[in-house]
């Protein structure tokens, strides 16, 4: 095995021996291969990422279906318990429906409150130069 200094001096001698056009051509070829290799790597990683995304979406749909099924079973159990306690079946269904609607209304109100964070108000003020508050008007102090 040759020493690193010996290899370096051999490479330097070969580089001096080659014409500039050949060195430039070799450099361009190395650049082309690099871009090709990076492109191939990017393509493979993109394919892998898309496969992972497809699995994630499929599993999210499955989880949503299972969660909905569990919710319906919980409602059925609550209905059975209410009827067993002596409540009329129609009244039990109406009570459970009302409780579900109450949950929907509360969720919608919370979503509406949280949606104000999506407006990027501080960023818009910084970019557009909008004032934070109304300008302060000078007060008449009587002096």
Structure in words:
The mean pLDDT is 87. The protein has four helices and no strands. It has a domain at 11-64. It is an all-alpha fold and 143 residues long. 79% of the residues lie in helices and 0% in strands. α2 (20-84) runs antiparallel to α3. It has helices at residues 4-17, 20-84, 89-114, 121-128.
Secondary-structure blueprint of this entry?
Blueprint: H1 4-17, H2 20-84, H3 89-114, H4 121-128
Helix pairs in contact: 2-3
Give a quick set of tags describing it.
143 residues; mainly alpha; 4 helices; 79% helix; 0% strand; flat
Strand fraction equals under 5%
Total beta-strand segments: 0
Helix-strand makeup class:
mainly alpha
Order of helical and strand elements: HHHH
Helix coverage percent = over 70%
Shape: flat
Largest sheet: none
Number of helices: 4
In short:
The protein has a domain at 11-64.
């Amino acid at each position: 095995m040759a020493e690193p200094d010996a290899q370096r001096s051999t490479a330097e001698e070969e580089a001096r021996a080659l014409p500039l056009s050949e060195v430039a051509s070799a450099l361009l070829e190395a650049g082309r291969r690099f871009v090709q290799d990076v492109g191939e790597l990017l393509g493979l990683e993109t394919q892998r990422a898309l496969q992972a995304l497809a699995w994630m979406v499929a599993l999210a749909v499955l989880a949503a279906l299972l969660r909905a099924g569990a919710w319906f079973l919980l409602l059925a159990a609550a209905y059975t318990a209410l009827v067993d306690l002596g409540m009329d079946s129609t009244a039990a269904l109406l009570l459970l429906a009302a409780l579900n609607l109450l949950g929907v209304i509360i969720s919608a109100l919370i979503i509406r409150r949280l949606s104000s964070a999506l407006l990027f108000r501080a960023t818009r003020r910084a970019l557009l130069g909008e004032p934070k508050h109304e300008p302060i008007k000078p007060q008449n102090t009587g002096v």
